[in-house]
Task: inverse folding
């Protein structure tokens, strides 16, 4: 009986406290702010223009992450790191979140000079109301174009200019940004796959050696991947593979 009273007393006190709080809340109710959206008839062309501008800004914000990632060094880095994981045969180790996080921070490191230049020449003057929005966008685009021109390959740029332009450009200023971006992305994909091929070679040699040894021993039913994985991990650790891969990636951008 005493144990039941000890168990029921805290529950009773907690119930009484909840009732008191509910009554106090009903007595002193505090209104919460609400957000309402509505569709009304436009009374002037300015209202239609403002609505279209808001819709355009929301559309740009939804695709802004993809635009920023495709115009930076993120593509090459994440593809090469993905090749490293596949070449070692470790399935999902390191996890995809780790690969993406490392790629993102390495991208910030490589792009820091360009981002600092955009901040100094475009963002800060615009926030200080020294330049207007079109001028800020133009000044912010110039460093990004310089970075993409420093990494784009001549073959891909020539291919895209022949497809999209009627005449051959005289200099970099004649190349539109919408032509430069896909050429830059193709160049990044090509370089990433070239680096991935070079990364695959030592791991492929280990797989071939292990497979030959297993076949010579008559152990054809044993998958070679199970035996070769520890040796590939050992080789990768002994040569400090992550430092070599990351260092090669950063140096490939000329940093």
Result:
């Amino acid at each position: 009986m005493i144990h039941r009273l000890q168990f029921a007393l805290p529950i009773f006190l907690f119930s009484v406290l909840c009732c008191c709080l509910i009554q106090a809340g009903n007595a002193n109710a505090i209104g919460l702010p609400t957000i309402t959206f509505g569709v009304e008839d436009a009374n002037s062309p300015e209202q239609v223009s403002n609505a279209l501008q808001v819709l355009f800004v929301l559309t740009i914000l939804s695709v802004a992450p993809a635009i920023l990632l495709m115009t930076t060094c993120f593509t090459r880095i994440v593809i090469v790191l993905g090749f490293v994981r596949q070449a070692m045969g470790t399935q999902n180790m390191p996890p995809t979140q780790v690969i993406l996080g490392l790629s993102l921070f390495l991208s910030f490191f490589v792009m820091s000079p360009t981002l600092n230049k955009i901040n100094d020449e475009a963002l800060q003057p615009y926030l200080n109301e020294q330049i207007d929005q079109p001028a800020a966008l133009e000044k912010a685009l110039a460093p990004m174009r310089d970075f993409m021109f420093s990494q784009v390959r001549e073959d891909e740029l020539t291919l895209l200019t022949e497809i999209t332009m009627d005449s051959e450009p005289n200099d970099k200023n004649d190349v539109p940004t919408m032509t430069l971006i896909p050429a830059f992305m193709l160049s990044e994909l090509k370089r990433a796959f070239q680096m991935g091929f070079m990364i695959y070679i030592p791991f492929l040699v280990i797989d071939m050696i292990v497979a030959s040894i297993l076949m010579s021993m008559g152990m054809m039913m044993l998958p070679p991947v199970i035996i070769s994985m520890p040796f590939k991990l050992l080789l990768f650790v002994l040569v400090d593979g992550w430092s070599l891969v990351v260092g090669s990636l950063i140096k490939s951008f000329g940093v």
